[in-house]
Structures are given as structure tokens and as C-alpha cells.
UniProtKB/TrEMBL annotation:
Origin species: Pichia angusta
Superkingdom of this protein's organism: Eukaryota
Keyword annotations from UniProtKB, A to Z: Aminotransferase, Pyridoxal phosphate, Transferase
Protein name: Aspartate aminotransferase
Catalytic EC class: transferase
SUPFAM superfamilies: PLP-dependent transferases
PROSITE patterns: AA_TRANSFER_CLASS_1
Quaternary state and interactors: Homodimer.
Aminotransferase class I/classII large domain location: 27-402
Misc note: In eukaryotes there are cytoplasmic, mitochondrial and chloroplastic isozymes.
PANTHER family: ASPARTATE AMINOTRANSFERASE, GLUTAMATE OXALOACETATE TRANSAMINASE 1, ISOFORM B
InterPro entries xrefs: Aminotransferase_I/II_large, Asp_trans, NHTrfase_class1_PyrdxlP-BS, PyrdxlP-dep_Trfase, PyrdxlP-dep_Trfase_major, PyrdxlP-dep_Trfase_small
Catalytic activity: L-aspartate + 2-oxoglutarate = oxaloacetate + L-glutamate
Matching Pfam families: Aminotran_1_2
Length: 410
């Protein structure tokens, strides 16, 4: 019988989006979901994407046929080169298995399923525990627990200093049972906007090596932190190509950096320790089985668009310009918001908003202040105090600063 199906609460983020849509106030502001908006607060189709769409529609690749189970190879190959680098040793030595997924969420799901089926913790002989930063993107917990995997958290954000708790992080890596999985945000950490500096990354990677763990990189914002694809891939490339021996999986999304949110363009890349043709084929066959059973084959349109961008030098150049357009507008909004708060003399320090990078800022606002921002002012952000800076623009940033000032003071 189907009597006892409990109704779940709405997803916090998509629930917020629904409340925002229904809000009739004309000066409402959406700082919730992590989607880029232009200076008029509108969704932005990247010029590089428009050019690629035109090219695609006039090419022989333009049809709506099925892709292969493993996806569009021109896309997955180019996607690997973007994250691992043109000079990647792992690619040159044929140690990489890549498969197309339903964006970053699908990549994490496929990686999780693969780990559950084929990776055992050396210490316990059970499927590994997936260690997530505290805090992390809320869906991380759900994606892995849905698969029956256990999750745990490692210290990351020090709320007092609003900086990285490196000692806590490294200690957690040292204390985890050998062969655990550490999920690492490749760049633009969600929700804090705080990334380790290169010397801190080295300590993290060395601890992972020592603990014989697996590094699971989640790359959802390459190009959003610095505007440079290469700079934002530094940590991943350091881990893959610098003589570490721990296993690595990279989950890659083009939702944000290509503005292809709804097209679900992504890939998972499994880096093998040695060149081993048989293992390479075995891994690909297992990943393919997961895709076949779950979605049969991945969506074609977005993959063809992104592939055209990555494989056409002029489009690539345009995309790099587009990344600078997005990241520099966000960075300008960080500066303006901070300057406005300082001008108002809003109690507290707001420097961290400028220091953080990527799409988000962990403002330090309390759940009660966030609630008042929504109810009294129509300014929407998630209860953790995370604000999507992309929702700010020249037209609303002063207003948002005033609203923040008001809820902080009273
Ligand atoms: N990882 C992180 C950290 C994210 O913030 C997101 C998107 N919010 C994703 C993965 C996946 O996004 P998508 O499935 O849209 O690619």
C-alpha cells in the first residue's frame, strides 16, 4: 500500500527560489542560488556559447541523435585537458578514464557509486567514508548517503577568524582510517568562498599521501575564482602531476563556468596510478554500466556546445574573456558591498567579503538576521549566511548594504 509516504520539506535552496519568485515586492533581491546574473540581474548567455550554438546549428553534428554511453568523446577529451592541463602527464601517459555525466551532481553520483562498488578502505575493508568539509555544499551529504555511503566532516572554516582551520583539517586527514575519501573543492569553495593557499594545499596533499587516502576533487567553478582556468586548476594539477601516489577522481561541471546550468554538462575523470590498458578498459566498462543503467546515455546538446568552445581556438579565447567578465563583475560587487557597509559604519568587520572568491560569500550573518532580511526587506539568502554575490549589481548593492546594516544593528 502507499499510505505512509512522508512528505519531505522542500529543498532549502530550491524552496528559497520558489519563495523569491512568488514575492511581489519590486525591489526584492535574490542572493540564493549560485547562478551568474549580469549587471541588470538577468541570466547571461555567454557570447562564446552563442557563437558555438550558431556554429553547431550549421554543422553536420547538429542533430538530436543519442550519444554513446560514455558520452561525446570530443567533449570528454577536451574537458580533461581543461582541468588537468594541456601538458598533463596523466593524459600523456594514458592514465585517465573519462566519462560524461549529468553535470557536476551526476559526476559526484557516478564517482560515489563507483567508489561504493570498487573501493574498500584499507583499514576497515568496508566501503570508504567520504569526508566532507565543514561546511560544504548541502547536496554533497545527500548524494553520498543516498548511495548508502557514510559521510563524515573535516574542520575547514574557523568562524572566529573567518579563515581556514588548516590544523584541524590536516589533523582530520591524519586521524581518518587509511583509505578514506577526502572530497576537496578544487576552487571557489562552496559555501565559504575560502580556498587554501598553495602552501596550505601542499600540507593537505602531503597528509592525504601519508594517510593513503583518495582525493575526490569537485571542480564546479573553474575560472570563477581568478578568471583564469589554469590558476583555478592549480590544486588539481598539483595533485595529479606531482609524483603523489594516492588515487584521484575529478568531478567536473560546466554549469557555472559556461553558464550551461540546465543543460547538465559534466564529466568524471578517474586518474589511474600507472599506465595499464586492461585496468583502463575495466574502469571504463564499469563507469559505462552505471551510466547505461541510470540514464542510458548522457545529454548531447550542451556537450556539443562546450566541445565546440574547447576545441575551437577563437571560441576558447572568447570563453576566457567571458570568464573574466563574470569573475571581475563579481569581484567588483564584493568591493562595492564591503565599501558600502564600511561607509554605513555597519558593526563588525566585512573585509572577508573581499578576500573570499568565487560565486559566494560566507557573510557571517546569523540565521535570525537572514530571516529578517527575507521577511522585512525581500533580500533572499540561505540561512547559513551564504550570499551569492552574482545576485548583486550596480542597481541593488547599495540597497542590500542598507538592509544588512539595518538587521545587524537592531
Ligand atoms: N559541487 C559544488 C560545490 C556546487 O556548488 C555545485 C552546484 N551548486 C555542484 C557541485 C554541481 O552542480 P551541477 O550539478 O549543476 O553541475
Amino acid at each position: 500500500s502507499v499510505e505512509n509516504i512522508p512528505q519531505l520539506p522542500p529543498d532549502p535552496l530550491f524552496g528559497l527560489k520558489a519563495r523569491y519568485s512568488e514575492d511581489p515586492r519590486p525591489n526584492k533581491v535574490d542572493l540564493g542560488i549560485g547562478a551568474y546574473r549580469d549587471n541588470d540581474g538577468k541570466p547571461w548567455i555567454l557570447p562564446s556559447v552563442r557563437l558555438a550554438e550558431n556554429l553547431l546549428q550549421n554543422s553536420k553534428e547538429y542533430n538530436h541523435e543519442y550519444l554513446a554511453i560514455s558520452g561525446y568523446k570530443a567533449f570528454t577529451d577536451a574537458a580533461a585537458r581543461i582541468i588537468l592541463g594541456q601538458q598533463s602527464r596523466a593524459i600523456a601517459e594514458d592514465r585517465l578514464v573519462s566519462i560524461q555525466t549529468l553535470s557536476g551532481t551526476g559526476a559526484l553520483h557516478v564517482a560515489g557509486k563507483f567508489l561504493k562498488d570498487f573501493y574498500v578502505s584499507n583499514a576497515t575493508r568496508d566501503p570508504p567514508v567520504i569526508y566532507l568539509s565543514k561546511p560544504t555544499w548541502a547536496n554533497h551529504v545527500q548524494i553520498f548517503e543516498y548511495l548508502g555511503l557514510k559521510t563524515a566532516s573535516y574542520p575547514y572554516w574557523n568562524n572566529e577568524t573567518k579563515s581556514l582551520d588548516l590544523d584541524g583539517f590536516v589533523k582530520a586527514i591524519e586521524q581518518a582510517p587509511e583509505g578514506s575519501v577526502f572530497l576537496l573543492h578544487a576552487t571557489a569553495h562552496n559555501p565559504t568562498g575560502l580556498d587554501p593557499k598553495p602552501d596550505q594545499w601542499l600540507k593537505i596533499l602531503q597528509a592525504i599521501e601519508k594517510g593513503k587516502h583518495l582525493a575526490l576533487f569537485d571542480s564546479a567553478y573553474q575560472g570563477f575564482s581568478s578568471g583564469s582556468l589554469d590558476k583555478d586548476a592549480w590544486a588539481v594539477r598539483e595533485a595529479v602531476d606531482k609524483n603523489y601516489s594516492f588515487p584521484i577522481i575529478v568531478c567536473q561541471s560546466f554549469a557555472k563556468n559556461a553558464g550551461m546550468y540546465g543543460e547538465r554538462v559534466g564529466a568524471v575523470h578517474v586518474v589511474l596510478p600507472n599506465h595499464d590498458t586492461a585496468l583502463n578498459k575495466a574502469v571504463l566498462s564499469q563507469l559505462s554500466k552505471i551510466i547505461r543503467a541510470e540514464i542510458s546515455n548522457p545529454p548531447a546538446y550542451g556537450a556539443k556546445i562546450v566541445s565546440l568552445i574547447l576545441n575551437t581556438p577563437e571560441l576558447m579565447k572568447q570563453w576566457e574573456d567571458d570568464l573574466v567578465t563574470m569573475s571581475s563583475r563579481i569581484s567588483k560587487m564584493r568591493q562595492t558591498l564591503t565599501a558600502e557597509l564600511e561607509k554605513l559604519g555597519t558593526p563588525g568587520s566585512w573585509k572577508h567579503i573581499v578576500e573570499q572568491q568565487g560565486m559566494f560569500s560566507f557573510t557571517g550573518l546569523t540565521p535570525a538576521q537572514v530571516e529578517r532580511l527575507e521577511k522585512e526587506h525581500g533580500v533572499y539568502l540561505v540561512s547559513s549566511g551564504r550570499a551569492s554575490i552574482a545576485g548583486l549589481n550596480e542597481g541593488n548593492v547599495k540597497h542590500v548594504a542598507k538592509c544588512i546594516d539595518e538587521v545587524v544593528r537592531t
